[in-house]
């Protein structure tokens, strides 16, 4: 079976010359595609370089319009037209050709612009008047059993009207009054002992000595009799050293 299959494939199925011709056609096709890709890459590179050059030229022209005040005058030479050069800088020639950059004019928005464009999309709540509302310009009424747009907006933005059960408080009026009274007392009460700012009121009060001064060991002498501690036992000599000049 192995030898028969090999013979049958070589005799009737496999064709060496057809395979060789197919591989040559593939190599030719690959070469054509490779050349086209190379040309496309070169074209893209040239286009990118051209765009970069145009962008740089545009930016240079914009800078020249922006720095037009540096242009030379008849009396004073500009920074690009130095007298120590044989010829002026190319920027000086570009400044002469370009026009000064004007200030941008602020676009004043019409106060009635939102009435025409924001009304159909409901971006802001409309102010309803007693007069009859006009339909928006250039907006047709949709076909079908739909209500008027002004009526729908009136219903959408109407104020809230809660029922008596929702508006009434959960607590009873008596408990609510008690809570308000407690809050008022807590807010007004600053301290229990009333302070009387008179010198004769505190004369009969007994002075409460400090805990640190009323102990059995007595009070400290530091800060009352002297302000520098002296320990003669730690002295090296018997006398105190003095600075002599």
UniProtKB/TrEMBL annotation:
This protein's record includes keyword Coiled coil: yes
Coiled-coil region list: 30-66
Keyword line: Coiled coil
Name of the protein: SPT17 protein
This protein's encoding gene: Spata17
């Amino acid at each position: 079976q192995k030898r028969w299959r090999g013979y049958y494939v070589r005799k009737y199925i496999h064709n060496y010359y057809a395979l060789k011709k197919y591989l040559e056609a593939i190599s030719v096709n690959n070469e054509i595609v490779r050349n086209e890709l190379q040309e496309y890459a070169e074209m893209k590179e040239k286009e990118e370089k051209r765009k970069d050059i145009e962008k740089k030229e545009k930016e240079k022209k914009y800078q020249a319009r922006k720095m037009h005040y540096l242009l030379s005058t008849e009396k004073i030479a500009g920074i690009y037209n130095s007298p120590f050069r044989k010829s002026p800088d190319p920027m000086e020639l570009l400044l002469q050709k370009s026009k000064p950059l004007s200030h941008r004019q602020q676009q004043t928005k019409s106060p009635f612009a939102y009435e025409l464009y924001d009304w159909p999309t409901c971006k802001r709540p409309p102010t309803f008047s007693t007069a009859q509302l006009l339909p928006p310009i250039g907006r047709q009424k949709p076909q079908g059993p739909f209500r008027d747009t002004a009526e729908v907006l009136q219903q959408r933005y109407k104020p809230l009207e809660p029922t008596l059960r929702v508006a009434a408080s959960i607590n009873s009026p008596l408990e609510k009054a008690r809570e308000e009274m407690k809050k008022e007392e807590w807010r007004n009460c600053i301290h229990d002992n009333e302070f009387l700012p008179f010198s004769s009121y505190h004369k009969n009060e007994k002075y409460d000595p400090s805990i640190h001064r009323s102990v059995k060991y007595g009070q400290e002498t530091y800060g009352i009799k002297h302000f520098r501690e002296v320990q003669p036992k730690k002295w090296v000599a018997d006398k105190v050293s003095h600075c002599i000049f």
